[in-house]
Amino acid sequence: MTRVLPPLAVSLGDPAGVGPELIAAAWARRRELALPPFAVVGGAEVLAAAAERRGIVLPVARIAGLAEADAAFDRSLPVLGRADAAYTPGLPHPEGARLALASLQQGAALALAGEAAGLVTMPVAKAGLAEIGFAHPGQTEFLAQACGVDDEDAVMMLAGPSLRAVPVTIHCPLAEVPGRLSSALIAAKGRIVIEALRRDFGIANPRVAVCGLNPHAGEHGRIGHEDAEIIAPAVAALIAEGVDATGPHPADALFSPRARAGYDAALAMYHDQALIPVKALDFDQGVNVTLGLPIVRTSPDHGTAFDIAGEGVADESATIAAIRMAAAIAALRAITSP
Are residues 98 and 37 in the same domain? Predict the structure, then answer.
């Protein structure tokens, strides 16, 4: 029997960014797109102001618990709690950062408690959070700690209609990437990706293509040694475990249409090696999915966009894609979990 899932929780993100207006725009299209029910954690006044500025009629239903969201969702946007801040699009401030953090913290707690089917996080400003004492590099690392998972086991996947890509190293200077890579790290990330492709994307026999680090994947040691000495042994280890893995591949050729047909996810060695092709191919529908967590977490693959916040031009497609993907993953987990 299919389990009836609770609604999704959506964290507000920085109230001075595009998050609030994109949430409102997504809710406004709920019937057209048959979106699953979701509730926003805090920021009712911010959401109402952002919607009004965008020209969206947004009835808000303040709810005391997530269980009330389903009944309210069709006619109003459910908002949990009374935490709020001033709406100052494009002008971030500490009060807004505190609201964003509180929303994230409560959203994570709801997902961990099973009251939410999953958590969709809207974009935050890392610098603003750091100013109020947030010690994590980003929301992913915060969620890993909240879930009791090591940072290295919380894997960031960028997923769109054309490509899924995972960076092995994330927010570090490019000069540090070679020193951070190891065969063990690459193989560990590969295992998490394979398991997630099965569990969260329903791919029975997933295929992973592994990028090289250097141009031409090192060209047999002529252009760097990392590909042969670090990446190739990791690929060999995965293959020995029965994983359908290939590589290291020259990254400049791995994202062509023909190449993409040969794998289900690409394992990249550093941040931009993964994010540039995803954003070039699927910018308006790209979703950041955190693999390796006991909860479902997705996020639109873009930032706060302070420069266009409140102007009514931000595209809600990635937010809609993040909501849909969170619901789809939650449904698959409900089917496969005991």
Answer: yes
Output the CA torsion sign for 326, 327, 331, 332: negative
Q: Which tokens belong to 129?
A: 């959070």
Structural domain of 267: 155-284
Quick one: 315 exposed, middle or buried, by C-beta within 10 A (0-12, 13-18, 19+)? middle
Residue closest to 8 by CA, chosen among 92, 97, 119, 87:
119
Q: What is the CATH number of the domain that holds 33?
A: 3.40.718.10
Residue 152, pLDDT score: 87
Cα–Cα distance measured from residue 323 to residue 332, given in angstroms and rounded to the nearest whole number = 14
Q: What is the pLDDT of residues 252-271, one digit of tens each?
A: 999 999 999 999 999 999 99
Task: Count Cβ atoms below 10 Å from residue 105 Cβ, excluding itself.
Answer: 14
Q: What is the rounded CA–CA span in Å between residue 23 and residue 79? A: 11
φ/ψ region of 286 (left if φ > 0, alpha if ψ in -120 to 50, else beta) reads beta
pLDDT, tens digit (0-9, with 9 covering 90-100), for 284-310: 899 999 999 999 999 999 999 999 999
Helix segments in 206-267, DSSP class H:
226, 232-240, 257-260
Calpha distance 300→317 (Å, rounded): 9
Average pLDDT over residues 133-159: 94
Tens digit of each residue's pLDDT (9 = 90 or more) over 218-232: 999 999 999 999 999
End-to-end CA, the chain: 12
Q: How many CB atoms lie within 10 A of CB 252?
A: 12
Number of folded domains in the chain? 2
Contacts of 116 (CB under 8 A, 6+ apart): 6, 7, 8, 9, 39, 66, 107, 110
